[in-house]
Amino acid sequence: MDLALIQLLNGMQYGLLIFLAASGLTLVFGIMGVINLSHGSFYMLGAYGALTLVGYTGDVFIALAIGVPLAFAFGIAIEWLFIRHLYDRDHLQQVLLTFALILIFNEAQKLIWGSYPHSVPVPDYLQGGIKISALLSYPYYRVAVAAFCVALALAMMFVIQKTRVGRIIRAGESNREMVEALGIDSRLLFRFVFASGAALAATAGIVAAPLESVYPGIGEPVLIISFVVVVIGGIGSIKGAFVGAILIGVADALGKVYFPAFSSSVVYAVMAAVLIARPGGLFGRAA
Amino acid sequence: MLSTPRPLVILVLVALLAYALALPFFGGTFALKFASRIMIIGIFVISLDLLIGITGMVSFGHALYFGLGAYSLYFISPESAAANGFLAIPFAILLAGAVALVVGSVAVLTKGFYFIMVTLAFGQMGFSLFFDTKIAGGTDGAYINVRPVFSIGSQQLLNFSNRTAFFYFCLAALVFSYLLLLWLVRTPFGRVLQGIHHNEARMSALGFNTYAYKLAIYVISGAMAGFAGVLFAAIDGYVAPELLGWRESGLAIMMVVLGGAGTIYGPLLGAIVYSMVEETLKSATELTAIFSLVMSGATAKWLGGIVANSWSMALGFFLIAAVLAAPKGIAGFIEKFAGEPKRAKPREIKPPAEHRERAKAMQLEVDNLTRAFGGLVAVDGVTVRFPPNRVHGIIGPNGAGKTTFINVLSGALRPTRGNVRLEREEIGGQKPHNVARRGLGRSYQRTNVILPFTARENCLLAAQAQHPSPFRFSNSWRREEEDEAVANALRAAGIAPDRADIRASNLSHGEQRQLEIAMLIASGAKLLLLDEPLAGMGPEETGRVTALLRELAADHTIVLIEHDMDAIFAAADTLTVLVEGRLLAHGTPEEIRMNAAVREAYLGEWGQEAKP
Amino acid sequence: MHNKSRISRRRVLQMAGVGAAAAAFPFARPAISQGAPLRVGLLLPYSGTFAALGTAITNAMDLYVKQQGGKLAGRTIEWVKVDDESAPPKATELTSKLVQGEKVDVLIGTVHSGVAMAMAKIAREAGIPTLIPNAGANVLTRAQCAKNIFRTSFGNSQPGVATGIAMIKAGIKTAVTYSWGYAAGEESVAGFKESFLAGGGKIIKELTLPFPNVEFQAGLAEIASLKPEAVYSFYAGGGALKYMQDYAAAGLKNSVQLWGPGFLTDGVEKAAGAAGEGVKTALHYVESLDNAENKKFRADYNEAFKRFPDVYAVQGWDTTMLLDIGLKAAGGDVKKQDVLFKAMREAKFNSPRGPFRLSAAQNPIHNFYLRELKGGENVYLGLAAADVSDPTTGCSLA
After folding, report:
1. Cα C307 from Cα B585, distance rounded (Å)
2. What pTM does this model have?
3. Which residue of B has its CA nearest to C210?
């Protein structure tokens, strides 16, 4: 297979993973207007949770089934303890509070799991890969993760476009009064959305754990790249996050091949270019 | 509008200054270094407050300029000799300012969170440039082997190797920077920045080129961060690429927010408190000393060790407590005890002579105007003329394209086809602030004043928009003229004198609408474009504002959209009826009332209702 | 000994109020009297990516001192720890805090090269005895060497040189390098290139990835298309773990040998699992090294911390050993710098890593061992290169 084609595939696969992490962020941000810096921490907790749960159950998908509800509950707790006090405050107060949460979560991670890197095994039935050239094969687990991401993206778009919950969520986008007018308790909606965001981040962390391995600080790059994807796609747009994530994934993979010296700047350059052309992101309303 | 610091605030600042002045007499080397560092970071964060708190632009890439300032010292320092501070400091300021100009010209195009992310992107690109390439020492940073000296010819005036001299220099720099910013935000220029923070659309509609203002402050702020950076590099003579990275940018934002954005001194307190708390929590020695005040030595040592081990968690809890307890930061906490700010007493303005010349207002012509959104044509080939010194009403059912129509007139939207001429000059497709400069002022459907400002301050901003040079740093120039314009506008719009110095947010809905009109008058607009000025008003207020519109027509041309049919038929000289984006009819109220097409298409139900 | 200062501090507090006290605290230090313990400042990472390394180093140093009854050369050792967070912008300030604020007698640090550069700047100006237990930036013992700065770990290019020699010995002719493109990675690759090219090897391509990026796929695909005999890679910690897993998952493991300096596998031997099987590395330490010091050290360390020591712990151990030698010569008095530094510079001892001595630039001259990861352990295959030293380019001491 052609090298450029392989890179394209790699980029898309990476993009799908970023989408998973970014989707929760764009929901929380778009609907609640909360800039949640601790999103990366939920990803990290998901990954470490996978480490523990796979240790007990032996299968990352069973860990997923247990871990996601736990993460949802954890999200509710965090919203109830901290976030709900800040809805009427300036965005920057939320930034400060969620930054404080990062400090706490990182330290908690160190105390609970220690500082050494760990790996999470790929399930036996997904060991091995598809041969794509003489030397190179493409791991089954990556294929499975890509498929999972696509399925989840479709499910989310369905929920948002076609269901009552979705309509409420769409109505809620940066407009609390409208939600209230529909007779819905916006506090409950916000709690649900925040917990969903946490659960999505943890999902990404759990699914990625066998790919990424698990070590301190894995949440931070995810946070930054997720924000990049969210603004490229347009804040609050799941479709935008999907397109943005694929775009960034591909740009990153190709950047590494064609501009190795500047490859860490490629995603930022892409973002800046998109925002200059469309200041509200690809699928956002004009800012 | 930012007021003069309250006495309590001044007291706090003076106490800090006194402490700093005395520090070299009792503090050791480390105390001086640590305090110098905090003061330098203080300059950095107040420069960021200029963006975040004053102008409302949250930059997540401000460390780019701080880092560039620091690296300037590396670039300009010879291998084993001292750089001259008289060169190094201007070089740092210029380099940071120049890069800010380039980055800002692009970044300022975006707003809100998109601005946060664009600035982050540029910051990270800057970091990569220094981290991934060898242009300045590369990944592990670089040394400045000899600290700068200030010399003229062979005369050495100041040497940064002297810790005490350096400390006092930083202190002076901080005091100077603080006073400079305090002055800057209170100039006409600074007032506009604050206006932009709270209502950019309004400022633009008043005739301010908000892009230019934002870019200007971005450059000023970046240059100041560069100044802080060059001092930072002089503390220990070591610079690292991480100085430009997002962590430093983020940390600065945290300090600004912790201290209280928009107060200038608040972020400075934020920097002090954040650094002190972090420093203390990290040090088992200090924690033990503090704990031993309330418990036995052994327990204190044990507890101190535990807290210091998990210092970042302790810092996290401290920050959460601070956010929850002090919603407006440390500054807000202090100001709770400081009482309401005193505002400068307005000067007495003599009322104008009773008998005045009627001023000729402006004429607006619209020719075959079309505006489409994709396939949807919202305004479709409208041609109409609005002669001067008349009240012109635009009516039509919901979705008739009325608001789109006036958005095109005011420059908020570009026309797809057709022309808009103000006094025979084409204004179609121009930017809102340029249209406003030519004398067209507009109000909005939802009241659009700058809520945290008083009525007078709102009008003062508007009056300031009249003059061609926007970058004004002097208060006295034209002040008298402007005060007079403001007083006249307030009076003309019917705002009672005892209400003029109340924050707009505390005015009634009707008063806010009147204030919006007062702002248009003060801005010197000759043609007023009003979007439902009577919406949400009771009968009494409606009567008052209708009368006001009639009076204003003496000096202005008025074009308004209105849904209150009784009022508009009574107030307007001409009526324009739009239906589905097309011009259905134009004429006097009587002609419109008789127009069969209008009655059929639109007025039918109304006609019955309205007849007594 | 704190009594007096505590009372006066309490009075100050009562007078000035808590706010002012908090402001004064970072500057208030207990006075140091004669015969006080020897205060050793530890500038090490205790949080973030490198926390495990900082902890291992600290543990080993603590173990050494405890075995000596809490004293070195008759002086009680008091650690003053500061978490450097591996953040260079804070590094000079934290170093100043230890040197000028806490007034430590000896400075030990750190892991991160940028932080070490900042620390060395202050340490050189202050002239304080300083030991570097890990950071590998070449320049620290080349152009920026100083008589008071000693490194007990390695220069970044040393493991690269040793790995290159071992690869030539293993008969490898062609290689691709794939490493983090920051200073440590580049210096490591430069060391490798030097010995590999000298031995007649050919480097097909040098691939890099920006630090700390861990998306290896693009590079792996390129390696597969270039078909070298072996790959030389510098990665460490979590990134190294992910790299080995991705390398194996891409199917490259069976066709292209993976080599690197020992950091590739250290600390992640077990975690790497099947993916790590057969990865060959060279390092100045291997767990199964057959010498008395190593056996004792491993047993003692495991007993104390319920974990076997890694190379970082060994470096921590040797740091304390070197300091001990110096202090003994100087009779516990760090003011006698000439004696102290001379003894340390000329120290030769048997470390758990084997014979240890310093070059003129005060960087270790030591053996490198060839290891292969098997069953969650680095298995000793033999000597990769004996007595590897680092050039003293630009060092005024040499």
Report:
1. 90
2. 0.89
3. B132
